[in-house]
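Write out the 3D structure for:
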Amino acid sequence: MDFTKTTEQDSRYDNLEKMSIKEIVASINEEDKTVPYAVEKALPQIEALIEKVVEKLKNGGRLFYVGAGTSGRLGILDASECPPTFGVSNELVIGLIAGGDKAIRKAVENAEDSSTQGWKDLQAYQISNRDVVIGIAASGTTPYVVHTLKDCNKKHITTGCITCNKNSPLAQTAQFPIEVIVGPEFLTGSSRMKAGTAQKLVLNMITTTTMIQLGRVKGNKMVDMQLSNNKLVSRGVKMIMNELNISETEAQTLLNKHQNVRKSIRYGRQSK
């Protein structure tokens, strides 16, 4: 198959340093507008991967994200949002980045070029064929990610990917590839821009849809969210008030007792 790194192709804009601030932000915005349409074209691929993720997690498996640089950070971000948003274990969705945790803040030289470290990183979590591993790489060529998925395939572990180049080595390796073709970046090769935005949109879809399918949402509310600050406590109280048609004081009392919106609603109904 032909493989062209469209993420590395020259920007449609030039002489950026001669642009005014107004011109720069307007041009970036024009490029950003194209991203959701690129994601839309990949919806069948996204659906196929999510179906597999749901199946694995319903049977006691875990979801792993594996990436380098921006892609790795986005995976870690999405994984870290699952416990507070949906009340799940920190061990259900796990993000791994080339170079380890220190690479979250600072680039680690040559970390993404390793063809063996990714599998070692997964082994630290006792990875098994009950789990699913999604490789994230805008280029679709990152050795750390591609070789990790190859090792997973050898061990009969389900693999997916999110990439922004068509027919990349990563997409050809993953059993469930997602290819969101966003084209050249405003700043040539800066895949933290449109490609990063595309990856974030897809990650939002994967975990939100999965958690809904796993029963972690009621109606359209995050009834299993962790009550980790005043804003979320206030949101929880309002959910209970609306669901049970009770006063704020009664709702607050229930939440103080049960420390969980879902439980508060359940016990509130039982006591009526």
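The mean pLDDT is 95.
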